[in-house]
Amino acid sequence: MRRTSRNFRIRGAAGRHGPALPSRRAVRAAAALAAGVLAVSLTACGGDDDGGDGGGDDKGKATGDTGTTLTLPKLDGQTLEVAAVWTGAEQKNFKQVLAEFEKRTGAKVTFVPAQDPIINFLGSKIAGGAPPDVAMLPQPGAIKQAVEKNWAKPLGPEATKELAKNYSQGWQDIGKVDGKQYGVYYKAANKSLIWYNAQVFENAGASEPKTWDELLNTAQMVYDSGVTPFSVGGADGWTLTDWFENIYLSQAGPEKYDQLAKHEIKWTDPSVKEALTTLAEVWGKKDYLAGGPDGALQTEFPASVTQTFTGGDQPKAGMVYEGDFVQVNIGETKAKVGTDAKVFPFPSVGDTPPVVSGGDAAVILEDSEAAQALVTFLASPDAAGIQAKLGGYLSPNKNVPESAYPNEVQQKMAKALIDAGDDFRFDMSDQAPQAFGGTPGKGEWKALQDFLKNPSDVAGTQAKLEADAAAAYGN
């Protein structure tokens, strides 16, 4: 799964970059709330597997957990394809949502597995005359690109109405291009979390750190106990951009963050040097990374999680950084969230802890009554409520009840996301043109993979990042 989360971040200006900057006070409030989320005692993930939501048997009309009734058209005999890069449990759970749509409307929906970068995948499908009807796009930059290529179709009045009813203005705005609504952010993520093996911490005498210096001290304690501190999924470049973005947001602040996201300041800026230098305090210690830099670069994201929670108190690593969606991967091990696997907010590097958000938006490529109905459904609390109870998922839909989530930690995370309103920051690499921020082997992904291999080359990494950014942004 991708970025899909990490101040929750959204863009800084109306239009392409969303609502205006939140105040530092608002950012601190959101960060404090997010921190409070993780102070609770976690319980094991779970949930009903039947995918139902109390919808009843009548096609077209059903009552969701909110007590409201969403009416959908009868679409017997119509077919739809939905493309997404989701795999494993995430794909399986989303298919339960699609099954409910089929039950209510009579339409037949096929899930099409896509590859990153999804824009390239969609381009090949469109060139072959077989585009999916709806695509789940993990980057606002990808939505903009799909509009510029005349692939994306605007949302109709029913979908727009459902979106406006259930989403804050900020989450609506990041699905817009030139003021027109194209995307429904069905899925959100808090990408400012570090998960840890509780037995490893207990053996090391370590506690949950709140600052970057405390994190380094904790890592040393874990190392001294005989366990490698960090697991890093460096084979997937997006995990590395998330590391950088959390450090940069906390250290440089939200204003600089927005400027760098829009390439209004260069990657050769001193603030980038400071963030990379800080990041090298972890990446530059080979013994702190499971398998060393070479091993990390061969480790894909799912394995980076599972190897942290297998092997009892002698796993390959004691900690792994990534978002709330890590729970899905932990569920594939014998570890239980809340007892074996615990979590703390990404520590503050500067004045406040970072809280960065990501997400996946439903975008229509083949306009039809069925496609519009599906996106309308995905904008409803009925659809989000189904996947919420299955775990490993957060919705920016403010009308999904907290009780829909399967455990206390996810309920608190969901509350933090909704209470933050428009005071968040969206994943920086996801805001960038895909050539820079979202393509394997290129741009930011490749530059940070090279930096993981050689963390002493701060200046060279900055120069490469700037050259690639300038080419991608056209400035």
Automatic annotation (TrEMBL):
Q: Does the keyword Secreted apply?
A: no
So which residues are the signal peptide here?
1-46
The protein's matches in SUPFAM superfamilies, at most eight in alphabetical order, are given as: Periplasmic binding protein-like II (SSF53850)
> Which intervals of the chain are annotated as region Disordered?
1-20
Alphabetized UniProt keyword annotations: Signal, Transport
Protein family membership = Belongs to the bacterial solute-binding protein 1 family.
What is this protein identified as? Extracellular solute-binding protein
